[in-house]
Amino acid sequence: MPKLIHITDLYHPHADPDDHFDLAQIFALVKKGDIELCQVIIDWPAFDFHGDPALAAVAQMNLLSGRNVPVTVGADIGRLRGRPELWKNASPEDVKAADRILEILRNSDEKVYITIVGGCLDTAIALARDPDAFREKCAGIVLNAGSGTNTENLEWNVNLGRVEYSAIFSAPCPIYWNPCFDNIETGQGRYKTYWKFPMKRVFSEASSRLNAYFIYMLTKNPDGKYLRVLDQAVDETVLTEWGEADRNMWCTGSIFGIAGLTVSMDGEIHPADACADPVYSYEPIRVTCDGNGVTTWESLEGTGCTDDTAAPRYIFRINDEERYAEAMTKALAEILKQL
Length: 339
Known about the structure:
Elements: E1 3-8, E2 11-12, H1 18-32, E3 36-42, E4 52-53, H2 55-65, E5 71-73, H3 77-80, H4 96-107, E6 112-116, H5 121-129, H6 131-137, E7 138-144, H7 156-160, H8 162-168, E8 175-178, E9 195-198, H9 200-203, H10 208-218, H11 236-243, E10 246-249, H12 252-258, E11 261-263, E12 269-271, E13 280-289, E14 295-299, E15 313-318, H13 321-335
Parallel strand pairs: 1-3, 1-6, 3-5, 6-7, 7-8, 8-15
Antiparallel strand pairs: 2-4, 9-10, 11-12, 13-14, 13-15
């Protein structure tokens, strides 16, 4: 079973609700027995208007899945973001999340995946402090950030931490790069993960407790009884109103990939090595990223070439843009039934 460290910008009140859907998907895969989640790390908020790290959301998911996954808050970005000269010798208090990453890698008998759906700071610090731990024990960094072709128009998370984002591409382990967008200006292109769906498609099939989790987050509920709220009846009017809204999503396919799964053209979930018609794939590439967060890459698919300068790199590619969103909606609703 793949081991995973999940790094996210998960806040309450939320900055973007997709992070809570991503967390639920991961815990659904945990409950199903497809992933062993070792640790959740939540970024230090980048702005004052963001809520605090949503420790409550992890506690809610632990309750719904019957697990006890630990959660750690990431490094203070005010002190360490964009300052790689401080990363190697920073105090333990400043880098507790990075040191936790290294502790898990060093002590694991199996290789561990790291998925980044928020900022790259804690992973970059850990990488600077012990690159050998990544070389020997990291199964792959699943990086959800950036843009596929219009790379000089920087995506949100890249622009927040260009130095840290660039550092990830030097890691001596496989990288599964999942650009949020392809061409940010036009919205066109297949090298992106973005999709959206009306939330009622998930709510209609989810358990009452999972819907309570989503509504608690969406309404920015200040009630401190965040576990007991899961057993309270959800107001159907509120659920219907939120159900009509679209939810922008990015990381669903990459999370399935960590579990060794993929999604077919018709939205069925299959083992990745046994699916003849995946709606998305990973394409082998050679890639570099400069200190300003600008990537340059070329495909190696079908060339017979390998990138001898680094561990393997792959980029997420949509195989059928017309069927992608519907397939992902169906697959997400199905896996969330586990909760």
